[in-house]
Amino acid sequence: MPELPEVETVCRGLRPVLEGHKITEVRKNRPDLRFPIPENFVSVLQGARVEHIGRRAKYILMRLDNGWNIGWHLGMSGRMVIDDITRPEEKHDHIVIANDEGKAVFFCDPRRFGYVFTVAEDEIEDCKHFAHLGPEPLGNAFHADYLEQALKGRKTPIKNALLDQRIVVGLGNIYVCEALYYAGIHPETPSKNLKRTHIDTLLPIIQDVLNKAIAAGGSSLKDYVQASGELGYFQHQFAVYGQEGEKCPNCSCDKSVERIVQSGRSSFYCPETQLRL
DNA sequence: CTTTCGTCCTGACTGC
DNA sequence: TGCAGTCAGGACGAAA
Hints:
4-stranded antiparallel sheet, Helicase, Ruva Protein, domain 3, N-terminal domain of MutM-like DNA repair proteins, 6 helices, alpha+beta, DNA-binding, elongated
């Protein structure tokens, strides 16, 4: 599912098709995704020029030249496929937007966990979806002093804390599992048990895991396709995610990766490499 | 305030 | 071969 690196990759793939281009056609094939598609969605996009494609957390933000922005969340199974506007639609193509050169973005989302919203330029930070977001993990505001403060006194497991978008955005189940593995921290560790030294270790590892995934062009699971629509996107091999029963990749360890369920989500970890604090 | 849990959805997979 | 059941998971909102 798309986490920060995948969304970043989608943004990069969308830019050549949309930035600087006028939207000449908008097709909305159903009234709702996870939430209703806003009434003004089509009229806001129709005829507008896309000034910028940005990303905040796991949201794609399309800034238009008419004062509006389109916010876009890919949910679990959302894909952006770029092709000619003449391409026949596929079963779960819910939204199609075409540019002034006959190219189109097909938003395909079988599970419909994705959603779109419209927001005026000066209301972005205060809107429902953005108001409670924490700092970007690759930005200056995400530093050890901040994370120490954010985890202080909280007994919730570190796994859950890192998934909490109010603490830090962009991380999902995969990259949290991976970061905790490389940091050698057991996912059930109460957040408040992390000492400053652990935070100093963990924080740059989170950034490293994300940066490497971005560099790899976003990782690919079952239902993610790179925005360019091109073949050959990177098939990521994870250290622990989805590796239950496989040998821990740490060469000085002969244990196997185990799976537990935390708050209904699978956590993968090595019982020897990752310590309970 | 913090924390947990139900909800949304369909395709892939498992087991009988 | 068919069918029922389970699982995957992001974010919201309600409830404890």
